[in-house]
Amino acid sequence: MTELSPHPILTVSGLRKEFSGHVILDTVDLAVPRGSIVSIFGRSGAGKSVFLKCLAGLLAPDAGVVRFERESIGGIRSRCGYLFQSNALFDSLTVLENVALPLEQTTRLARNDILQAAHDALISLGLDAFADHFPAQISGGMQKRLALARALVTHPHLVLFDEPTAGLDPPGRTAVFEMIVEYRRRFDFTAVIVTHDVPEALAASDRVALLDEGRIRFEGTPSEFTASDDCIVKSFGDSNVAIRREDDN
Amino acid sequence: MRVRVRSRVSIIRTGGFAAVLLKIVRTESGRVSGRCAPTDVTDQATRPCEDYRTPLQNASGSTIGVVKMMRLLQAVGQNSLAAAAGVGDFAMFTSRAVAAVPATRHLGGRWVRAVHEQGVRCLPVVTIVGLFAGLVLGLQGYYVLARFGSEGLLGTFVSLTLTRELAPVLAALMIVGQAGSAISAEIGIHRNSEQIDALTTMGIDPIGYLITPRLFAALVVFPILTTVFTLVGLAGGYFSGSLLLGLDPGVYWSAVHSAVRPADLTECLLKATVFGLLTIAICCHSGFTTHRRLGVSGSRAVSLSTTRGVVLASITTLAADYLITSFLI
Prior knowledge:
Chain A has 249 residues and is of the alpha/beta class.
């Protein structure tokens, strides 16, 4: 665990979102300390991805405020990266072009500088040998690293991860969390991770939160989460451990 | 007033027709929303569904006809509002694509790619269709004009038909079928696989990145391909009229030369430009709004968006053709 700054980089207060009268998020409050890894758990359909999209400004909340370093979320995109569950890579662009895309479109760097920065990002994530490949020609794990390289190439202060381990086997899930911890240390960003993988997330995170019925039911450190007497928190943790054992077998 | 629905006669006797009609509509609305409605206007207590017969089941004849008419009017109203909202949304979308020009980086490279996508790929199909259109016009025109001893006007007939109507319309329909469908499907897949959201999170305007180059490419590609269609069509007319049926080539080409005025060429290119802007914008908009198809998602939504884009663009081409012709003729 790292030493956390007392000043939150991201503050969410009273966030509310509903679709066709069905309340998904109901007055969600959360503060994300600078430099931390915060994991958010919750059942399927609990609104975790909706919450993350509200943080990124992809969905407009019906009520509440999301502030990034005291600014409204709308103006922060150049300092915020987002890793999609599906990776959302452009399959008509090569690996190098995918990573260079945000630099090409959002900076005034020279073409050579952009290619150099993209190449450096690929080297950092061990993908430089596949620079000329298309996303469909590399493995699922590599695609995940490529998506992370694209998210990190602009040196964002905050990276949002939407179920980064979806569709991966248990060793793959552990590797992704190890990768997040390692790159957080190297690139010095704050991470918010929405995930179902409780054991891996507890090992990797500085703080965790449990989203239940549209509200934050628990928020604290991983040790506080495992020691919690709250029946929902306990059952959630237990069920995930049980699922993990089945997976391992 | 307590009105109980038993028959059409009792309704008329009590004079409560309007009240019952109102209740029928309310009851039917309640059934749609899964609630059991009361049988009495003033009775708000609900009754078990199995005992319940709706007033519509009891009522018959003209009452049912009025209710159906009201429902029809409601559906027409809702669809009209949805269509008006759709047109407004499309206008905003197109305006944003044009307004995004100054803020879009490396527009030139993407524009060249879009010109290739729409122009080079559509060139063979436009050429083939243009050739056959000219061949058919030459054959049909020759035999019709021969009845009046006016074969010499074949060049006039073919050239004016092509420049004023057939070339802009058929070229636009061919480009919509070839490039418009591809554009709509590609943007729909971008939407489905969260690539458009990814652009947004990277701080890139997805409309500027995906739509603007294609829209501006259409402004160049459509007039060029329409010109190609016209030239190939004239050659087709010459082939069937002069080479196959024996009309003097000099007569054919001199009729073409004397018939086509600058105003005809202006009309041709104006139509091509307008069709290009409208059809590519419609196909782009259809793909971009794939996620708004209620009740469908995934590949089915992409399929529906593509079909919708091509159909709407084709109809719009013909409607715009009529409007432009009626103003210019």
